[in-house]
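Morning!

This is the sequence you dropped in the shared folder:
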Amino acid sequence: MNKFIKYTFLGALTVWMGFSISCTEEEPINLPPSFKLTGVSDIMRTTATFAGTVSGDVSSIKSYGFEYSTSENFPGDQTWTLEMNGTPSSSVIATATGLEANERYYYRLFATTGASKVFSSAEYFQTLSSSAPGLQEQRASIAMQLMKALILP
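The structure's back. Tokens below.
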């Protein structure tokens, strides 16, 4: 519909209904950034690496990162933060250290945009148990198997 017809219609509607309608230009709406968790990797007894993406309007982001917790409700006394300052690139990766062995952890992405803080949905993972072989033990076992295979035909 062209502007002339639209404005003529609004003018006629104003006269017929007895009140006026004013039009203003729409201002852009700054939507919060959107997040997607892409997984957790390198899960060991005391460490894990989180990954995710941030898209949308990231220009207003002041800081971002991951929160992780032993509770799915993320209470303050059971929540730890891996925070980075500035505007994120599309991929966000961070490694948590000092985790407890054989513990379920919940994690989520976050961003602060001045006064507000927005979050992704949360996911969870479980660290390896104390009795599970660590990376060093796994490497030693593989090296031993390789040596046996090369020495003993």
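Headline: The radius of gyration is 27 Å.

More detail when I'm at my desk.
O.
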